[in-house]
Amino acid sequence: MVEPGFADAGPADLEPGRCALRDVAGRPVLVARDSSGRLHALSGSCSHALLPLDGARLRGGAVMCPHHGARFELATGRPLGPPASAPLETYAVEEAQGRIRVRLA
């Protein structure tokens, strides 16, 4: 069942260990599937320099910004070291009917 308040984030075609920057209701959101297959959704801009996380990579439960190497914990958005000091916003995420859906509010 699709929960109300969730916006479409595209197809659920992410393999474990992969992430992608998606447009969700006009907002950039990084959608990631960790190595165990669990989905995560975080702000699509790095908190360090506000650059898009397009091209980010996952490494053991963390996402790494492609611009300056800032790392953030997938589950919480917490920065794991410099140059970032502020967390990324995280969102509730679900998979339904072959689609990924994110609650932005």
Give a description of the structure.
This protein has one domain (7-103): Rieske [2Fe-2S] iron-sulphur domain (Rieske Iron-sulfur Protein). It is built from no helices and 9 strands. It has strands at 7-11, 18-24, 27-33, 39-43, 57-59, 62-64, 71-73, 90-96, 99-103. A hairpin with a 2-residue loop joins strand 8 (90-96) and strand 9 (99-103).
Task: Indicate the multimeric state.
Answer: single chain
Strand content: 35-45%
> Kindly state the mean pLDDT as a whole number?
94
Q: What overall form do the CA principal axes indicate?
A: globular
Low-confidence stretches: none
Structural class: mainly beta
- Number of separate domains: 1
State the end-to-end CA separation: 19 Å
Number of E strands: 9
Gross CATH architecture: 3-layer Sandwich
Helix content: under 10%
- Order of helical and strand elements: EEEEEEEEE
The CATH class is identified as Mainly Beta
- Helical element count? 0
Please describe the biggest sheet, giving its number of strands, its sense, and whether it closes into a barrel. Answer: 6 strands, antiparallel
> CATH homologous superfamily, by name?
Rieske [2Fe-2S] iron-sulphur domain
CATH topology: Rieske Iron-sulfur Protein
| Largest beta sheet: strand ordering | 1-9-8-4-3-2
Rounded to the nearest angstrom, the radius of gyration is 13 Å
